[in-house]
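dumping this here so i dont lose it again. seq + smiles for pyridoxal-5'-phosphate
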Amino acid sequence: MVGSQNVSLATLSIGRDAVQPQHEHSEPDATVDAAAAARHALSHIETVLATISQGPVSPMDPLLRDVEAWLAPIDFERPMDSAVVIDDLVSRMTSSGVHTTHPRYFGLFNPTPLWTGVAGDIIAAGLNPQLAAHSHAPAAVELERHVLQFVRQRAGLPEGTHGSFTSGGSEANHTAMIVALTYQFPGFNETGVTGSQVRPVLYASSECHLAWLKIAHACGIGRAAVRLVPVDAHHRMDVDALRRMCTDDTAAGLNPFMVVGTAGTTGVGAIDPLDQIAYLSHDLGLHFHVDAAWAGALVLSDRLRPILAGIERADSVTIDAHKWMSVPMGAGMVFHTNSEAVADSFHVATSYMPSRSALVEDPYTSSMQWSRRAIGLKLYVSLAVHGREGYERQLEHDVRLGEYIAACAEDSGWLRINTTRLPVICVVDPEADSENDSWLFHSEVVDHVVASGTAWVSAVRAAGQAAIRICVTSHKSTEADVDVLMDALNNARLSVQARTRLSKAERHIEPPGSG
Ligand SMILES: *Cc1c(COP(=O)(O)O)cnc(C)c1O
């Protein structure tokens, strides 16, 4: 097999030389060993990543404060040596910004990518298969489907469910809204909602991912169509409130069409009551979508899968591979149990695309994208090499590390305000929490931690309450990293407390009436 491929490659290059003896049509890369640039890039990032944990998590290159001066040495009229370009590029990229590959990045679901995922992505970039039409890249299309069907089955979704790789969770959610609109409003695919009496509205919790607003805007139903349902004390959608809102909206002449249950909210990792929402949605004839962009990875763990109970009753599901499945951006997945509605939403026929066969479906006729990168290859390589059980061990390790963070924080007098089992821990200083300027206090503590370079955490408002959000995001994070984080957090709190006391004292001695 390999041998015969070598022969055909050799034949190919001989044939090319014969056609272009003088290299009349020189390619942009004819004069340089461009493949060496790719090899150099790979070995260079490997070196940089091996030592990233010894440096600050979020460095700031002072030169970047003057962007024009920073960019001035880059002149496309003067080509540079490839090794110089690559070294310079990597150093510019790593001297500023937030290192999501750092083990003390306790941040926003941006993983340290697995090298296996990088390998799959390199193959996708280098071979550059076009996945729009099955006939162009049958192997890649079928490998993607194999991965999608595996994840589909782990999620408990029925056979016949349609899956697609997307650029990320936003595109996945966007796809779900288009399919829901198309199915729920006959004629939507031809005439949209323009000029019709229909006023579609959908429901998601007030803690949902606000990409839904942009998506509603892009679908032409308007941002006001996203009805935010209040949450309970655990930041989960209040299903009684959902039922009331649906009833009231229908009575007011609006047309509810979809409910989104979030499994793992961005802020606090809350899991909406998926079973109850499924029941209500089916009862009211609404499309039930589960947005499990981050936490959906738990379908890979037998022990943690029950956290997502109810996901198998969804009409559509979003799971990102570029979050807790730790492959490079951008890789999302979307699943639909109604594959006919998917076809109705995205079918199109053109003279220039390879003709559609009755046996195979072309990805461009069942998803948003046209030209398509082989997004799934990175997850394919990671799953094939580490196996589901490798992922399971990692996910369970991350959940235990979350429990360790919660315990350490409590030992240091922080109060946890969220209750999820997922490794996102939101804490407050009890004293500051009762003050008016709680947001100011907690965001200042966060700023101190980030400026120290030792760790990265963020400030968050959970149902309006200010808190510090700590999320296990890198598969490299260990208890030792948590210990360093806790020291940084506790020191930051002392500094901010000292400053706050000082400014209060100053305010106190100000003469009355000075404002
Ligand atoms: C991250 C996330 C999104 C957005 O997905 P992207 O991959 O960033 O486009 C949507 N919903 C939830 C719950 C998320 O965690």
